[in-house]
Each structure stands twice: as structure tokens, then as C-alpha cells.
Amino acid sequence: MEEEQKITLEQYLAELRLIVDLRLTTQYPYFSEKPYPLGRCKEIRNAMLELLQTRLAMPTLPAPLQILKNELNLGQTLKPAWGSLRDEYFQNAILLGDWYIDTANDTVNPNKPRVEIVKLEQSGFSAITSFEQFCLIARKYWQVTIYKNDIYPALAPYLPLVCVNNLGASWLAAANDDMIALARKSCFVLSERILNELPSTPTPIKQHWYRRYSDHTDYLLKDTAYSAAEFCQRYREQHKEHDLLFRDEVVKAYLLVAQGASVA
Fold first, then answer.
1. How does pLDDT run across 166-213, given as a tens digit for each residue?
2. Which sequence spans correspond to the domains of the chain?
3. DSSP code string of the chain
4. What global pTM score does this model have?
5. pLDDT tens-place string over residues 78-99
């Protein structure tokens, strides 16, 4: 893609953002008391990718989309990606070969352009490779305190973190496919490491969780036979990292408590 073509595609995608914004502004007016588009990079990226796929299927394409179509014809693919942007915040973007396409470039600073296309190597975007890195970003970006997940230790090998913000809201992290895959790929070694580094969740917070979800009987939420770190060791011995059915059980259990709890 030439520089002039990049600018043309950038302008076209910015126009598509206006279409997406009309719908998403109504659907997601606020994120943690911040007005749209702040904090909505995932929703915007997904909507833009869906709209792009629909437009690319049209029999006749406008010139900017033809640029994109030509790249796809050369064997490139449009791939959703999530990761770190300069270790300052989390970002959802689209990758096209060695190009980084940020269709939600204004979700941290609304004064920035809606769309940015740059070479991936120049973007500052990278995969997250440890829970320590995740915590580093989350503490700054979300303004949270992070504890080990000893609320539901049987989930901790997959979801080792408890985040608590300054309003008293708390939730399990990191509940996305990338971080769960990272835990599994490491055979839960990375989960065990961060669990051994973080302090325990304060008792008052645990009590709020247990009161709120006292009616849930899922066995993974009730299993406290071992510590969070010991569950990592046991799952590793049982080769749970390869067990997709068990992963699904963990995710289903998490969804029962996904709304978190608040001490406010």
C-alpha cells in the first residue's frame, strides 16, 4: 500500500466511522461515566470490521475499498487484534499484513483522529506476554488496584486477577480469549507466578462477592479445596491446558459472576 493509498483508505474509514457512531452512540452512551467513544475500542473495532466485510462483498467497490480489496487479493487478511499500545493502554485494532489499522483511535483521547493507519512496526502495538504486563497497563489505564483471585481459586489458573477501581467496583480479569490463551499456553505457569506476587483480596471485598452470588451452585465457584496457586499446579499435572471442554466450563462459571461486585 502506497502512502497516498493509505491516506485515501484512512479518509474512507473515517467516513464509515460516522455510520458506526450513529448506532453505537445510542447503544453505548457511557463507559464508566465517560461519554462515547471513550473506552469503546472493542465495540467500535468489531462494528467497523463487520461493516467493512459487508462493503467488501459488494459487486462494485468505491476506489478506497478497491485498495483494500487489492491487498486481500494478494493474500493478506483482515484480522482483529487486541493488545498493548506502548504499554499505556489496551487497544483493539485490525491488522492487514504489516499494517496496523486503528478504527477506534479516539477512544482514549477524543481529540485524536477517529482512524489511523500505520506500519505495525511503527504503531507501538504488541501482544501482551505476561500478567505482570497486563497489570502494569491496567493499573495506569483503568486506575485499579489488583489482587490475586482467591475469591474463586478454581478459576484462578485462567483468571488470576481481581481488579478494584476507585468507585469500589471489582471484577475478575483478564476475561478475554487472548489472556486465557496465554495462561493455557504457559501451562498456567504465568498465572501461578502472578498469583504468588499479588496480595490476597481483602476480606470485605470477598464477602461482597460471596453475598452477591450466594445462589450460584456451579462446582467451580464452590471449590476451595486448594489455593489459587495450587490449582495452577493441579491443572498442569492434569494437562488441563489442552482440555477445551474444561476451558468452556471455566468460562461458563465466570459468566455467572461476570458482572462483578461493588463495595460502594
1. 989 999 999 999 999 999 999 999 999 999 999 999 999 999 999 999
2. 3-126, 131-262
3. --HHHHHHHHHHHHHHHHHHHHHHHHH--EETTEETTTT-HHHHHHHHHHHHHHHHTSSS--HHHHHHHHHHHTT--EEEEEEEETTTEEEEEEEETTEEEETTTTSS-TTS-S-EEEEHHHHTEE----HHHHHHHHHHHT-EEEEE--SSTTTTTT--EEEEETTSEEEEE--SHHHHHHHHHTTTHHHHHHHHHSPPPPHHHHHHHHHHTTT---HHHH--SS-HHHHHHHHHHTTGGG-HHHHHHHHHHHHHTTT-EE--
4. 0.88
5. 999 999 999 999 999 999 999 9
